[in-house]
Amino acid sequence: MIADTPAMDTPAPLPRSLLAAAAKAGQHMRPAHAERLAAAMARHVGPSGTAYLAKVVPAPAFVEHARDLLASWSEHPDVPGALLGAAVASAAYAHDYARHNPQTELVVSGPSSTAVHARRTEQVLLQLASEAQREILIVTFGLYMHPDLRRLLAQAVAAHVEVTVLAEDPSDNPSFRGNPGRSLEGTGVRRLRWPSAERPQNGAAMHAKLVIVDRAIALVTSANLTHRAAEDNLEVGVLVRGGDIPARLAEHFDELRRTRVITET
Asked: 150-164: string of b/e by CB count within 10 Å (b at 16+)?
């Protein structure tokens, strides 16, 4: 006769808001720091008396994110410290792995070859526009959108995705003949420009071409945001998913906006 096995208590899953707080804290902590915090949290059955944990690592960034985590924990006092600490440490290691192991993919336009098996620029642009959840940043020299991309960007704006386009402008570069305002008319997209007063006096052009989605995916390409560049021109780019490159690129343009090197039209 087989003896009954004693039932083991299964801990309840973390509330979604607390899980999100753990993920955010882990994202901004080094794995070793997250481990140290997790070990200290494991000694507590709840959040009472844990304010000192924010200073387990005497670094300003750690203190800030640890305090935010402890504030969220105080709203769920039944969650044991060992469980929450493990979530933070896991998030830290997951983000560290993603930063060091991004997924990259070649993207091409124009003639194909047997040496490179890559998706087409137009296909990738349409996919990125359709899968964005929070924000899209587009940077381009030329802007002559084809109808499908224009429609998807307008749909993204309607779905409360923040769509921002930085394009070359004839008012800032007299040799440029495009009209980004006309191309974006009626889409609800926010438009940025690099004012001529902020450029070197040697006639520098706004020449970068990239698309960043949700700060997690970046397409860096030679292709302008035009139908011809997306399909017919000989263009090459790299699509980066994960890692810290998409976020760092987005932060680069954030800072240019804060310092008013780039302004809204």
From this structure: bebbbebbeeebebb
Q: Which residues, at least 6 apart from 16, have a Cβ–Cβ distance to it below 8 Å?
A: none
Cα–Cα distance, 121 to 209 (Å, whole number): 12
Q: Is the dihedral of CA 222, 228, 234, 239 positive or negative?
A: positive
**Spatial contact of 103 and 240, defined as CB atoms under 8 Å apart:** yes
Give the tens place of pLDDT for each residue, 71-87: 999 999 999 999 999 99
Rounded to an integer, what is the distance from CA 215 to the centroid of its chain? 1
Place of tokens 């008012």: 171
pLDDT, one tens digit per residue, over 180-216 is: 888 888 899 999 999 999 999 877 899 999 999 999 9
Domains and CATH numbers, the chain: 16-100 (no CATH), 103-264 (3.30.870.10)
Its sign, for the CA torsion 243, 132, 249, 233, is positive
**Global pTM exceeds 0.70:** no
